[in-house]
Design a protein that fits this description.
11 helices, about 350 residues
Length: about 350
């Protein structure tokens, strides 16, 4: 085998013993999950915003952002339920580039997986303890989910992972709502199959155990646009796309039909400013059609302290080193505008 095994890493239970949650922190996470489930069940009509940096690259700037976001969330809490994005793993299309805090807690240093495991747990713990919110993270590696499963309020399965069997089966055993993105090809049926698989019980191997899942009735769709064979971005947030998804849901017996619209990625062509226009168009579609108002539970927005992005080591505090994000001033105005329009 052409691999070097450097060291055996601590298992999730050991890491949780090293960095345990307090009773208060566990209660905060449980309440946030309960509130989010109520929205997906239709018992609460607040609009979800999964919002935050493309990648959590620096603990200080991420927490600076999260404190501002918490203050903003309190202003709009009657209409909007804010789920902070703390994405600590980054899928890379070619395998090159910054892979997230799990790999590199210091983006300018070499990878250190053990330090990364500790860094991501401490960051998520700080969010819960200091703001009373529970974050979203992407489940890039299903086997790593247990390091954070007591801290997360929302989980996303990415466009490159949604066809993978282990992601689907692991999602079926997760307690929190799991969003399944459409694949990069844009095939809605692949996404719908993933949701169906995640909502059903399964028996499978997980971290060396024979595991039995109960099914996750809160698995749902995330529309993020697609890319054609010429590498061009094709959006899927328009009214017709949302109605097509509505019809696909009607063809299947699935619990809690729902979609979160990702207004960046291929929907915006990674033009971060377009997120503002796209968000408002989705809201207009929901106002026009009551069926869509019930189906569209929220938006996913990439936002940080400073507009745009930079290369790793660029030196601009609070600016993304992966995909470009909305800066704070534009973010604050957008969130307030969304609340005003609901």
């Amino acid at each position: 085998m052409n691999m070097i095994f450097e060291r055996k890493l601590a298992i999730p239970m050991e890491v949780k013993e090293m960095f345990p949650l307090t009773g208060t922190m566990s209660q905060v996470v449980e309440q946030r999950i309960a509130d989010l489930k109520a929205i997906f069940e239709g018992r609460n009509d607040r609009f979800i915003l999964v919002i935050g940096p493309c990648s959590a690259d620096n603990e200080d700037s991420v927490m600076d952002y999260m404190h501002r976001l918490n203050d903003l969330a309190e202003k709009v809490q009657d209409k909007i339920f804010v789920v902070p994005r703390i994405y600590t793993n980054k899928p890379r299309t070619t395998g090159d580039g910054y892979k997230g805090m799990l790999h590199q807690p210091d983006p300018e240093a070499k990878p250190d997986m053990f330090k990364g495991i500790i860094a991501i747990r401490k960051l998520h713990m700080r969010l819960v303890q200091e703001t009373g919110m529970a974050a979203a993270d992407e489940m890039l590696y299903p086997e790593n989910h247990k390091y954070l499963d007591d801290l997360l309020g929302y989980v996303a399965v990415g466009a490159r992972s949604v066809e993978d069997q282990q992601h689907r089966l692991t999602a079926s055993g997760i307690e929190v709502p799991v969003g399944m993105k459409n694949p990069t090809s844009g095939d809605f049926q692949v996404m719908m199959n993933a949701i169906q698989a995640a909502q059903h019980p399964h028996t499978f191997i997980y971290r060396g155990w024979e595991a039995h899942s109960q099914g996750n009735p809160y698995a749902h769709a995330i529309l993020r646009g697609s890319t054609n064979k010429h590498g061009q971005s094709l959006p899927n947030y328009h009214y017709e796309d949302l109605m097509l998804l509505h019809d696909f849901y009607a063809e299947r017996e699935l619990a809690n039909p729902a979609v979160i619209v990702d207004v960046n990625h291929a929907n915006s062509g990674k033009k971060h400013i377009e997120q503002i226009r796209i968000a408002k168009e989705v809201l207009h579609s929901c106002r026009y059609n009551d069926s869509l108002k019930k189906l569209v539970k929220g938006l996913m927005i990439e936002s940080y302290l400073v507009d745009g992005n930079q290369k790793p080591g660029g030196g601009t505090y609070g600016q993304s080193i992966t995909d470009p994000c909305l800066g704070w001033e534009k973010t604050e105005k957008l969130v307030l505008d969304i609340a005003e329009s609901l």
